[in-house]
Amino acid sequence: RAIEEFEFVIARGASGSVLDVAYDKLSQIYIKLRNTDKAIEVLKAATETNSVTHLNRWYGFWLEKLLEQDRQEEVETVVVECLERFRKIPNLIPFHCFHQAGMLAMFNGDLASARNYFFRLYRETLLSW
């Protein structure tokens, strides 16, 4: 029932914080139901509305799913896309992009690149405080 209600709010053309809340609640429901495909779909739809609230979370889910499926080339492409997209948004740090890129580099044995990604993640986090 809750899924139907939030989908109704989104379909009716809600905007601003109401839309953000609807997307957030709907994605959380799918996460609790362990339906990551639907959660990713909802979060991707949220990012396409130019809502930056869900952008970081969507990239986190998507990158994690690609890593689980051992699709490393796609991870690299998505990380580049993520970092480019975040450059255009002031005061928003791509936590998941840096973290997942660092993990991929580490698993591939490229410790210098992994260290660079993790350093950028921590530096950006500290600067944001």
TrEMBL record:
InterPro entries: TPR-like_helical_dom_sf, TPR_rpt. Gene3D superfamilies: Tetratricopeptide repeat domain. Pfam families: TPR_8. This is Uncharacterized protein. It comes from Vannella robusta.
